[in-house]
Design brief:
310 residues, alpha+beta, globular, eight-stranded mixed beta sheet, 9 helices
Length: 310
């Protein structure tokens, strides 16, 4: 793969990019890109996609690898109830990756990003003797017209209800981790109605076992209420409900709201289920009521979620 050839492939789409996204005033090809944004908050997030950790390029199609590199970041944007504005990508390709594969990877990232109104406005390309590594930085802003600041992870109160969108568990064996839709539209639907605006929210990338404690110190979950994804393993030693707590890579919204908030049972014209799975508590840590009625500590389950270790 020759860097200049790939860069020329990238730059070839600049005219169409600026036509579709007039806010991009300097497209890829300069030392920096430029976008016009209205006065107010500008949110920034960065995430990585590493071959052998988040994807397996030996089995996953390149278009889905590129797609996931973008949608992982857009899921964070949804968790803040924000609107994506633009993104930059730094990709370090394995030596011998090939120009055609590099172009296909970039095209998938560009198409995905533009499909969510988040044009790629710059980046960097490198080559090394290691697996593929892609780093995406995304810029976002609060939803125009919503009149509310971003939703953070702080704000839950004892007694609040705990909700999750979509389904949980089995993301890797079902392929969901490659094809999920960032819940941008669902977040917008929730925050634009003052009665349903979440108090706190996070996207489920590491599993409830890891992500729930990031929202509150104490909670009680009902395992029988967990919306389990079809195809999730359900065999000893881990029944399906434990996979729903631990597998991660769901990229759904986990959020809290006042107990009397009129949270709908479904969003987006009924196509996306919203399920109450528990209650914020004022003491006792994080407890799961198992389907058999036993109360167990979330961290004592063999369902720890995903955590990078070095």
């Amino acid at each position: 793969m020759r860097e200049n050839a790939l860069l020329q492939h990238v730059y070839a789409g600049n005219a169409e990019l600026t036509r579709r996204f007039p806010g991009v005033t300097i497209p890829p090809g300069d030392d920096m890109g430029a976008i016009e944004v209205a006065a107010g908050a500008l949110l920034v997030a960065v995430d990585q996609l590493a071959d052998g950790v988040h994807v397996d390029t030996a089995t996953a199609p390149l278009d889905l690898v590129g797609r996931k590199a973008i949608t992982r970041n857009l899921s964070d944007v949804a968790a803040m109830a924000a609107e994506p504005v633009a993104a930059v990508v730094a990709a370090t390709l394995p030596r011998g990756f090939g120009e055609d594969r590099a172009a296909a990877l970039f095209d998938a990232m560009r198409t995905t990003a533009e499909g969510f109104g988040c044009p790629l406005v710059g980046g960097d390309i490198g080559v090394w003797d290691h697996p593929l590594l892609v780093s995406v930085t995304v810029l976002a802003r609060p939803f125009p017209g919503a009149g509310v600041p971003p939703v953070t992870r702080d704000g839950s109160l004892p007694g609040d209800a705990i909700y999750v969108t979509g389904h949980l568990g089995g993301s890797l064996p079902t392929g969901h981790h490659l094809t999920f839709t960032p819940r941008l539209d669902a977040a917008r639907a929730l925050v634009t109605d003052p009665k349903t605006r979440p108090r706190a929210m996070v996207d489920l990338s590491d599993g409830i076992a890891q992500d729930l404690p990031r929202l509150m110190d104490h909670a009680e979950l009902d395992a029988a209420a967990l919306p389990i994804r079809e195809g999730t393993p359900d065999t000893p030693p881990l029944p399906a409900w434990r996979h729903a707590l631990a597998d991660g890579e769901d990229y759904e919204l986990l959020f809290t709201a006042p107990p009397d908030a009129p949270i709908p049972a479904a969003l987006l014209d009924g196509s996306l289920p919203v399920t109450r799975i528990g209650t914020v508590a004022d003491a006792g840590g994080h407890v799961v009521v198992a389907p058999d009625g036993n109360r167990v500590g979330l961290k004592t389950l063999d369902a720890a979620g995903w955590e990078h270790t070095a």
